[in-house]
Design goal:
Blueprint: H1 9-15, E1 26-27, E2 57-59, E3 62-64, E4 73-79, H2 90-99, E5 104-108, H3 131-146, E6 150-156, H4 184-198, E7 201-202, E8 207-208, E9 215-221, H5 226-231, H6 252-269, H7 272-282, H8 303-332, E10 337-343, H9 351-357, E11 362-368, E12 373-376, E13 383-386, H10 400-405, E14 414-420, H11 431-441, E15 446-449, H12 474-488, E16 498-502, H13 505-510, H14 530-533, E17 535-540, E18 557-558, E19 564-567, E20 575-579, E21 583-588, E22 595-596, E23 600-604, E24 609-615, E25 626-632, E26 635-638, E27 641-642, E28 649-651, E29 654-659, E30 664-668, E31 676-681, E32 693-694, E33 696-698, E34 701-706, E35 713-719
Parallel strand pairs: 4-5, 4-15, 5-6, 6-9, 9-10, 10-11, 11-14, 14-15, 16-17
Antiparallel strand pairs: 1-29, 2-3, 7-8, 12-13, 18-19, 19-20, 20-21, 21-24, 22-23, 23-30, 24-25, 25-35, 26-29, 27-28, 30-34, 31-32, 31-35, 33-34
Helix pairs in contact: 2-3, 4-8, 8-9, 11-12
């Protein structure tokens, strides 16, 4: 059957998760404070201390250690106050992360205005770093390093300028995105802050951050593109509100400065005759400045005018990234790899931005499955949100896998520094396993899920406080453990074939004008099923690929290695199967009739769930002595209440977190030379949850009953 795609979402939304309200939820919490005695400890995947042999580097388009051995990142973000735990909590948090196989932490919003910050509070500027906050950061980085966990330092993310910074209209800039590309004062402050932070000496690691081998990557700016601001109408100069937030237009003064800079650029680039022609096209007099285009004018704008302005903005991005890169490498002496910013807006083309960011050491991408849309309730004036709340397995061609795959560039390592199935999506159990499998298939270099936590550990609760926290989520944390095994060991084989793409400069600029219906690839003739069957990468931005092969969009989508199969015929039947020697998984709508892989079969009561089986000792599942079984469905807060359409929450609920237990029979198949099989149910700290059970010998293998008591993961011991 032909894949139906996004047109089904409205139908699925109306149908909803019909049985969801009827399925009983059981309390289950993740214990982060006590890491002793855990039966599942994946710290053996880490190579401690981080950076012990030198810096992670890029070689052949991949991340490698100094000895040339491949290095992959299985990471988490820490955000705001979570970047600065106390010295009592930092070792415990580091132990917890290591136990789940996390080998790199991305420090995000170090410069926040809404949370703990590296800037001194109470000053009228942001030009001094807080010694006490630095001490907490230093100690945490050291604790991570000792356990083999690397660091990714984000520079400018959430900086709100203050009066003493000397930034024009500082209180109207919000996070001050975009102005860094053309305002010299802001550019100077970016350089100053980078030097202050990266030349700071960590007394615990005994090195400055610029020469600390445990720092894998330094990122310049977060989700910041002036090209994006142009096509999003955020360069109009219409903002008159103080502290406008993240995605804000700037003030009339900045709009005027940008127009002046644009006209000066035109004067340097064009002859007098060409300038006169452009003025005629724009309909302005000889002495008047040529106005910049708004998004509403793109479609009708003559090619010459549109492409010139696109070149101008792309040039600003290139100059900023090249200049900051030279400054950090040559003047500051940063030895770590440097990334510019992420390709993050998949409703529009990302190729203009990638033209610049791919000149640096690492290319990066961000994608969320159904990021919440924030709203204000007209009656209560309270902030609320809306999500479609539908499963990704039913929409493969718009999946995070396909969206993220557009950004990888030949010759550069590719990381995903933010991704998630934001809470309270009821199908989030699908996210980690699918992304880990396809990231391995595409041979990407790293994934950082967003985010471990926003708050200080003293404030952590056994409930989901927001959309993005992963620490308290028993479903995502258990799947992170299985994903670490799968991704860091490369259990899923890389694609046997890579479909290469290249774009001319004209094509890159013209892609800005393509409609959102061309998302996420904005590449006419390129089938969106290709990334589910083969790897794909960009080879360059100077010449367009003439023709792409025709590829079927019929389900199932089978990877060219045969390890991955994505089934979706357009109804409520989407599922992904992962079948390798050391990891096998069934994810999505499995059906009560059961599904069977080489070493595992499942007959479950749940309508939607994920079952992942991984070897813990590195042997094939058929010969392993220890296996990790992760079986997950929904997670929620106690007393959480949905609206009628199950697209938003009326009440976020209270502690503790609760789960929908995965119930039914799982059978281990083709397991060699078995004497006995012991199944140990695990609690949130990875310790035994009551007495273990014995797997029962049946005709098809060894059967175990899941669901009581409620848990998300099991340790299986096999005696031979």
């Amino acid at each position: 059957m032909k894949y139906v795609g996004v047109s089904l979402l409205s139908v699925i939304l109306l149908v909803g998760f019909a049985s969801a309200q009827e399925v009983p939820m059981k309390p289950f919490t993740m214990d982060w404070r006590d890491n002793s005695g855990a039966l599942v400890d994946l710290s053996f995947l880490l190579d401690a201390p981080a950076g012990k042999a030198g810096f992670v580097r890029a070689h052949g388009g991949k991340l490698v250690k100094p000895n040339g051995v491949r290095f992959r990142i299985w990471g988490l973000n820490v955000t705001g106050s979570c970047c600065f735990p106390s010295k009592e909590d930092a070792p415990i948090v580091a132990d917890h992360l290591a136990r789940f196989g996390i080998n790199c932490v991305r420090f995000h919003f170090l410069d926040s205005n809404w949370s703990a910050s590296v800037f001194v509070k109470g000053r009228d500027d942001t030009r001094a770093l807080d010694p006490q906050q630095l001490d907490k950061l230093d100690f945490f980085v050291w604790q991570l390093k000792r356990r083999g966990i690397y660091t990714n330092i984000n520079l400018n993310v959430g900086r709100n300028y203050r009066k003493g910074d000397g930034v024009r209209d500082y209180e109207y800039l919000g996070l001050a995105k975009v102005v860094n590309y053309f305002d010299e004062r802001v550019q100077m402050l970016h350089r100053e802050y980078a030097k202050q932070l990266l030349t700071h000496r960590n007394p615990y690691t005994k090195s400055q951050y610029r020469e600390e081998p445990a720092v894998a990557i330094v990122e310049l700016v977060n989700e910041n593109s002036i090209v994006e601001a142009w096509f999003s109408d955020r360069l109009l100069g219409r903002n008159t509100g103080k502290r406008p937030g993240t995605w804000a237009d700037f003030t009339p003064w900045y709009a005027e400065q940008l127009t002046k800079k644009y006209n000066a650029w035109l004067s340097q680039r064009l002859s007098a005759a060409e300038l006169e022609e452009l003025r005629e096209i724009a309909g302005v007099k000889e002495d008047d400045p040529i106005p910049r285009l708004t998004a509403g004018q793109f479609a009708d704008a003559p090619e010459k005018r549109f492409h010139l302005e696109a070149q101008f903005y792309m040039g600003l991005e290139r100059e900023y990234f090249d200049g900051m890169y030279r400054y950090l490498k040559q003047e500051v002496g940063v030895k770590s790899l440097i990334a510019g910013t992420s390709d993050h807006n998949h409703w529009k083309s990302g190729y203009p931005l990638l033209c610049s960011t791919s000149r640096l050491d690492v290319v990066d991408g961000h994608v969320y499955w159904q990021h919440p849309r924030y709203l204000t309730d007209p009656k209560t004036k309270k902030r609320t949100f809306s999500i479609p709340n539908t499963p990704m397995v039913n929409d493969p061609l718009n999946s995070t896998v396909v969206q993220l795959s557009r950004s990888a560039v030949t010759g550069r390592p590719y990381t995903v520094s933010e991704t998630n199935h934001p809470f309270p999506n009821e199908y989030a159990c699908e996210g980690v396993g699918i992304l880990a499998a396809y990231a391995s298939f595409h041979d990407w270099d790293g994934i950082f899920f967003y985010t471990f936590e926003h708050k200080d550990p003293d404030e952590w609760q056994d409930r989901m406080p927001g959309h993005f926290e992963i620490r308290p989520d028993p479903v995502k944390m258990a799947n992170l453990a299985a994903g670490a095994l799968m991704f860091l060991r490369s259990d899923v084989r890389p694609a046997t074939e890579t479909i290469y793409r290249s774009y001319s400069r004209w094509q890159v600029r013209e892609s800005i004008r393509l409609p959102s219906s061309a998302r996420p690839y904005f590449t006419p003739g390129f089938a969106l099923s290709i990334p589910l069957k083969h790897s794909t990468r960009i080879t360059g931005f100077d010449k367009a690929t003439e023709r792409y092969r025709e590829v079927s969009t019929d389900s199932p989508f089978v990877s060219d290695t045969g390890d991955l199969i994505w089934h979706c015929t357009g109804g409520r039947d989407g599922r992904v199967t992962i079948e390798t020697e050391r990891t096998q998984a069934l994810i999505g709508y499995l059906g009560r009739a059961g599904r069977t892989l080489r070493n595992i079969s499942a007959e479950l009561e749940n309508e939607f769930c994920s079952v992942m089986l991984c070897s813990l000792d590195g042997e094939p599942i058929s010969k392993a002595g220890r296996l990790l079984l992760v079986a997950t469905a929904r997670s929620a807060n106690t007393g959480m209440k949905w609206n009628q359409k199950r697209t938003s929450l009326l009440d976020w609920g209270i502690e503790p977190t609760v789960i929908e237990p995965v119930k039914g029979k799982v059978t281990l198949r083709d397991i060699a030379e078995v004497s006995s099989i012991e199944v140990i149910l695990l609690d949130g700290a990875g310790r035994p949850l009551g007495p273990s059970i014995a797997a029962r010998k049946v005709a098809g293998g060894y059967e175990m009953q899941l669901g009581e008591p409620a848990t998300t993961w099991y340790l299986i011991r096999i005696e031979r």
